[in-house]
Amino acid sequence: MNAPLKLTDRKRQAIVEAAIAEFRASGFETTSMDKIAATAGVSKRTVYNHFPSKDELFAQILHELWTSTAAMQPPPYDPAQPLKAQLLALLSNKMEMLQDGYFLDLARVAIAEAIHSPQRAQEMVARLSVKEEAVTTWLRAAQADGKLAKVDPELASQMLQGQLKTFAFWPQVTLNQPPLSAAMQQQVVEATVEMFLSYANATE
Predict the structure, then answer these.
(1) 44: burial class by Cβ within 10 Å (0-12, 13-18, 19+)?
(2) Each residue of 66-120: pLDDT tens digit?
(3) Which residue has the higher pLDDT, 64 or 71?
(4) Which residues fall within 8 angstroms of residue 63, CB to CB, at 6 or more apart?
(5) Where in the chain is the domain with CATH 1.10.10.60?
(6) Considering the domain 7-52 in this protein, what is its CATH number?
(7) How confident is the model at residue 7 (pLDDT cuts 50, 70, 90)?
(8) Are 150 and 143 a contacting pair, CB within 8 Å?
(9) Which CATH class, in words, describes the domain spanning 62-200?
(10) Residue ranges of E strands in the chain
(11) What is the per-residue pLDDT for 1?
């Protein structure tokens, strides 16, 4: 069982969550540290004790976004297991991350700021690209094992992940649609795998 957070850690997390809410509502540039402090229920001095600047607070949000994705690293390819079962597990893992409410809030803030200030979000974009490389690596291993026809692993990776995001990321991030139901998540994952295996001429 996880130990309860110390008071200072609870305040830090409250500040981050308040910043996410305020950045989403008003944008990075117009959000003040005073407003973040009020929303977090702490003093302005407490905010500055944890985050000397608004830029450092935004950097913490990007760090948490990266951490939440890195924590859900897909399992490595296993030549002893059926390809379809592994793909289903791989994409179910991805779906779980995409539909996590905290991850979606972090992504909304980061993407909105990336539009207004690309320089500020360059590190996030680079890190997320590295994270998505894990699926490409998995596909290369399956291909080397003779289980996938000669497909471009990078293109195939974009196809697989893009299909999930069409239903389970972009509508939630850009249109504030609710997360998919568990049944719909499973349906999207299964349909994506079936279409991909047909396209890739996979062999078990």
Answers:
(1) middle
(2) 777 766 677 899 999 999 999 999 999 889 888 888 888 878 887 877 777 777 6
(3) 64
(4) none
(5) 7-52
(6) 1.10.10.60
(7) confident
(8) yes
(9) mainly alpha
(10) none
(11) 44
